[in-house]
Design brief:
Blueprint (H helix, E strand, L loop, with lengths): L6 E5 L4 E5 L4 E5 L7 E3 L10 E5 L5 E6 L6 E6 L4 E7 L3 E2 L5 E2 L3 E10 L3 E7 L8 E6 L4 E6 L5 E6 L3 H6 L3 E2 L4 E6 L9 H20 L8 H13 L1 E2 L4 E2 L22 E2 H13 L3 H14 L10 E2 L10 E2 L13 E2 L10 H16 L7 H18 L18 H22 L8 H14 L1 E2 L4 E2 L14 H4 L8 H14 E2 L2 E2 L13 E3 H13 L3 H12 L11 E3 L5 E2 L5 H13 L1
Antiparallel strand pairs: 1-2, 2-3, 3-4, 5-12, 6-7, 7-8, 8-11, 9-10, 11-17, 12-16, 13-14, 14-15, 15-17, 18-19, 20-21, 22-23, 24-25, 26-27, 28-29, 29-30
Length: 586
């Protein structure tokens, strides 16, 4: 039984795999993040498919990352017999400067002592397990083929006897061995020597990448692990940044808040990019900026809230009814119908990220003209749409409302556009935008402030509180010492803080009252406490929250208030970018 999201993630900026602390690969899509799954046990324990190493109960199992890398090490030991399982997806720079990132998973068995014994459960299920997958032993590999009209294959190369591998026979490890899963048939021979070279090259790649991340006096380990995790959620080919690596891990067990997060939300990605830029990883930033430029070829084309990782604009939502779901939480969804929603906050978050990048690298931004065209187009869109209701940051599927956060980010869009204009053209265009910025500012103070609550509330005329409003100070709309902001923080603490974790909001949404905490909201609250001067309280809450991560320091989208179990899609970019931001501020 799956108890908690005690998983690690490996990847190579093309795809990823989610590996349980017991060594089982329970989720992997090949050849790309958003491809159909080849292992999906995380969504159906019986038919999802997995690849697990099983030892007798006398063995203890301990999983860690190799320091400063995205390479997982799972140790099996009974005190006498011991081996390590090394898991990674190859990624390293070739001599021509390009990166080698094949759709492959390598598992290396490192003999440590004695005569460790184990069985292998190799059970791939192609195409989300929509049909029977058959495995066949060939001279050089095991091939898995889908018994269906759809053609799909998976290849496994191994130094272990292939019959023992497939038949779940007991294997006694006396020397180092390997297995390599590949979406493509390998042209060159796969040898143990080559596999170990791939391992060393991949390890060097991650050590080099980590060395470019600034070091901090406090929380350096947590910041670096989060930075590596965000890197793993980038799709290098286009520059897209994924919200998470999985689909349909529920926000609450047994409920239907199950969504596919293997896409690029403009809001989430822009926030990630701003944090990554702070850490100096400019290549990721440049790739994302290029992704945005390629999405908007026409000046009058409105931004969607989200796109596919290859820039797809239609993300049709489907239910996979044959899968039982994570802990029987149906439905399992692929695609996401939210792509048609209108969310006015995306404009401000994107322009804020563009402004941060231009300000930081003004003389090195080689696509300044394209970015300036996008900024001007966004101001035009905001001018014509900011007074209209929308679905808001939390993607309510009911009627549109005048959400405070959406209005705030419309103000941010115009404010940052003015600042960009000042940087690149001495404020020539800014002059005509001042009045618009002031109008939105006054409108928020007039309509979002609730005199009875003494707080800025979720939407105009509402008595409901919302954690997103805490970002007012962070975006420069209001000062931390402003009485209105301090009162808002206090009111949100009183109504939304539960057992040191934050609700997003407490009003019923499309599916009733949320029963889990949205992890990023707790980070936002901690940041706000720190800003208003309650530093010790903020630090205590932060360290408590860090203690709720899984065994590898990873966070999903949500945390259950009662059990403190991690819930929601995993690992969540939102959670890790907020961790970095909060750690740096503290």
């Amino acid at each position: 039984m799956l108890d908690n999201l005690n998983y690690g993630i490996i990847g190579n900026c093309k795809s990823s795999a989610i590996i349980n602390e017991n060594s089982s690969i329970d989720w992997c899509c090949l050849p790309k993040f958003d491809s159909s799954s080849v292992f999906a046990k995380i969504l159906d324990e019986k038919i999802g498919g997995s690849f697990q190493i099983v030892c007798e109960s006398s063995y203890s199992v301990k999983q860690t990352y190799i320091d400063k890398t995205a390479i997982l090490k799972t140790n099996f030991s009974n005190g006498k017999d011991e081996f390590d399982l090394i898991d990674f997806m190859p990624r390293y720079q070739k001599e021509n400067g390009s990166f080698y990132s094949p759709p492959e998973i390598i598992r290396i068995f490192i003999h440590k002592s004695g005569k460790p014994k184990f069985k292998i459960i190799y059970d791939p299920k192609l195409e989300y397990s929509t049909a029977i997958t058959n495995n066949y032993i060939k001279d050089k590999f095991i091939v898995s083929i889908l018994d269906k009209d759809v053609y799909n294959t998976l290849f496994l190369y191994t130094s272990i006897d292939k019959k023992n591998f497939l038949n779940k026979n007991t294997i006694e490890l006396s020397k180092d061995e390997f297995s390599l899963i590949s979406y493509n048939e390998k042209i060159s021979a796969v040898s143990k020597e080559n596999v170990f070279i791939e391992f060393e090259k991949t390890k060097v790649y991650w050590l080099n990448w980590s060395s470019k991340t600034p070091k901090f006096n406090n929380y350096n380990k947590e910041i670096l692990r989060s930075a590596i995790t965000l890197k793993l959620l980038t799709f290098e080919k286009t520059g897209a940044v994924l919200a998470a690596a999985t689909t349909s891990i529920p926000e609450t067990i047994g409920e239907v808040r199950n969504w596919d997060y293997r896409f690029c939300w403009i809001r989430d990605a822009s926030m990630v990019i701003k944090v990554i830029a702070k850490l100096g990883h400019n290549k990721i930033v440049k790739n994302f900026i290029d992704y945005i430029i390629n999405l908007i070829p026409d000046k009058n084309e409105k931004l969607q809230i989200m796109y596919g990782i290859n820039g797809e604009k239609k993300l049709e939502e489907k239910k996979l009814t044959h899968l039982s779901g994570y802990l029987n939480s149906k439905p399992v969804r692929i695609g996401n119908a939210a792509y048609i929603q209108k969310q006015n906050d995306i404009y401000g978050i994107l322009v804020d990220a563009i402004y941060f990048q231009i300000k930081k690298n003004l003389n090195e931004t080689d696509n300044l003209e394209e970015l300036w065209s996008i900024v001007k187009s966004i101001v035009w869109v905001v001018k014509n749409n900011w007074k209209k209701p929308d679905k808001g940051i939390w993607e309510f599927r009911k009627d549109d409302q005048h959400f405070t956060f959406s209005k705030l980010l419309c103000w941010v869009a115009v404010d940052r556009a003015i600042k960009i204009s000042t940087l690149i053209q001495n404020g020539k265009s800014a002059k005509k935008w001042y009045a618009l910025r002031d109008e939105i500012y006054d409108d928020i103070h007039k309509n979002a402030w609730n005199k009875k609550k003494k707080a800025f509330t979720q939407s105009y005329g509402s008595d409901y509180l919302d954690a997103s409003v805490l970002l007012m100070e962070q975006y420069g709309f209001i000062r931390a010492n402003d009485k209105k902001y301090v009162q808002t923080v206090k009111c949100i603490e009183k109504e939304l803080l539960e057992k040191n974790l934050m609700y997003r909001y407490k009003n019923d949404d499309d599916f009733g009252l949320p029963s889990s905490s949205f992890t990023v909201c707790t980070f936002w609250f901690i940041n706000s406490l720190n800003k208003i001067g309650e530093k010790e309280k903020a630090k205590k809450l932060f360290e408590n929250l860090l203690g709720l991560s899984n065994h590898l320091g990873l966070f999903s989208e949500d945390i259950d208030f009662k059990s403190k179990r991690l819930l929601g899609n995993f690992p969540q970019a939102y959670s890790h970018l907020a961790l970095i931001d909060t750690a740096i501020d503290l």
